[in-house]
Each structure stands twice: as structure tokens, then as C-alpha cells.
Amino acid sequence: MEEELKNIVETAKKKVSAVSSRAGFESIKAEITGPNGALTKVMKGMGSVPKEDRPAFGKMINQAKQQIQGFYDQALEAIENAELAARIGPAIDPSLPSVEPGPGSLHPLTKVREEICSIFKQIGFTVVEGTEVETEYYCFDALNTPADHPARDLQDTFYLPDDARFGNVSKKEDERYLLRTHTSSVQIRTMLKERPPLRVISPGRCFRRDTVDATHSANFHQIEGLYVDENVTVRDLKAVLDYFFEQLLGKGTKTRFRPHFFPYTEPSFEVDFSSSHLAKLGSEWVEIAGCGMVEPAVFDSVGYDPETYSGFAFGMGIERIAMILYGIDDIRYFYQNDARFLSQFA
């Protein structure tokens, strides 16, 4: 009986390894382990085996079944890989020229980001960038955001494991790493390195635990600005934003400030704008940005004298501006990589 099982296993190995089609595989499988297969017939003979020998015989049958099942799995994987390769076709040669004419085009978010940066460069702002991984100090503490602020809750911020290590992201003290929720952290790092006068904008990708729908995404892009010097006032802030939005959205664009609260600015404002673009949205005024005068506690955290210097900060979402400029009603289009959508911006 043991010799018969060995022969069945060897036969199965030989036949299964040679099969190249799903139909052939099923045929061999039926021949070996089907209702009338060779291994099934041996198993049916269990009743004729002496009672004391049945445990050993059962063990041999199980071992044979496991071996044969291993042959089946290998053969089926090879068949599935061959079927997939046949559907995909021959390998692609990446050195061949593209079938599409021209060099392609920039992503609409990239185009809007570059346009924003270009406008601010015209009035003396410098572009600065930072890492997408940040620490609690640079993202919250230095920006006057208290430990119990809702923005620091787990349901709002993506925190990384306690044992995470990043050699290129410095920590101020014992704190957690996180995915930055805004690019204001870049402003803190810049102020720690440079002295006023300072005029910078910091574009980049941000992350928040947000519901993904037509107007929200857990991954989004933001651009924030900071201007620090002596005798900077709200009037300067309004003038800069008025100039920017008129350059971006066209002559006749108007802005207005509404009182708001941000931990790192005081006073703080929401910014609304009105322009011809709003005809697409059916509204006279639309919220577009947040801003305010830098809170003195923020200057204290970076070593600036709040009695000598003042400044303003502002921030806005690149996706929101792109949706207004191009009349797009769903933020998810930007991330789906649909060539039909992206080709419209060539």
C-alpha cells in the first residue's frame, strides 16, 4: 500500500508539471484525486486495512494528499501567469518613442501652483519648501496650538508610529512624528534659520483625516505666505492679497475680510473674493483663504522680538483655486489620473 501511494505521488508530479492548459490540468486532477481517481481508490480501501494499521495508513494518505496539492498549486499558478501574460501581450520597450504627439502637459494643480508662485515672486516673495513628515513642535507647538486643540486629535491628524525614525527631519524635543497638516511648519523652520525682513511662500502637500468627497480629500495641496518686518500692518496684508487675487482672477476682483480665529494669528480673518469667475458657481462671494497678523507668541518661539517686528501670514488651498479657475466641481478628478481629464489642460 505504501509503495502504491509513492507511485501515485510520483505520477502526479510528472503529469502535473507537464500540463500547460487549464483543461489539461482539470483532466489530470480528475485522474488523480477525482471521484474515480487513483488516490481516491486507495482511500476507499481504508476499510480493508487492519484496525491497528489504520492510523499509520491514514497518515501516509494525508502526506500524499498534501504533496499532490502542492503540485496542483504550482501548476495552477504557472497556468494563471501564462494566461495573464497572453492577455497583456509582449513586453513593452520603454526606449521606444511615445505614440502621443508632443512632450505632454503639466498637471492642472502644478500649473496653478506655478502661477501662484509667479505672482508672489513679482512682489518679492521667495519660495521655500519643507518635508511632508513633520514633528508636533514645528506643526503645532511653535504655532501656538495648545495640546488640547482639536486639530491635534487622532481623528484629525495622521500620527506615525512611536518607533518611526527620519534622519532628515529634526526634532525639537521628545515628540511624535506626523504628516503635516499645513505648510505653516515650513515658515517656523525658515524663521529659525533666517532673520527679518522675511517674505516667503511655502507650497506643498498636506494631509488630514478628512472625509473624501467632492470638495474634501485626506491628501491636498496648500500654499502659505509669511511677511515679517518692522511696522507691518493689516493694511499691508490686505494690499498683498488684493494684488494677488486680481492678478490671478482678473481685473475687478475684490476681496473682503471676515473675523475668524487661528491659534497662530491675531487678529485673524477669513478671506472672501468676488470676481467674474463666480458666475460658474452662482454666488457673489466665495471663501478662498485664511489670514491674519502673526501672534507674538509665535515670534517668541523662533526668537524674534515682537516689540520690534510684526508680520502677517496667509494660507489657501491650491485645489480650491484650481476648481474655481477651471470650473471643476469634484476635487477627486485631480487624483484619478484619467488621461481624458488631464488632456484638457495641455
CATH topology of the largest domain: BirA Bifunctional Protein, domain 2
CATH class of the largest domain: Alpha Beta
Structural class: alpha+beta
Count of domains: 2
Distance between the termini: 74 Å
Percentage of residues in helical conformation:
25-40%
Please state the second-level CATH architecture of the largest domain.
2-Layer Sandwich
> What's the average pLDDT?
87
Strand content: 15-25%
Count of DSSP strands: 9
Which residues sit in consecutive blocks of at least 5 with pLDDT less than 50? none
**How many H/I helical runs?**
11
How would you spell out the order of helices and strands? Answer: HHHHHEEHEHEEHEEEHEHH
Radius of gyration: 33 Å
Which term fits the overall shape? elongated
- What is the assigned CATH homologous superfamily of the largest domain? Bira Bifunctional Protein, Domain 2
Largest sheet strand order:
1-4-5-9-8-7-6
What profile does the largest beta sheet have?
A: 7 strands, mixed
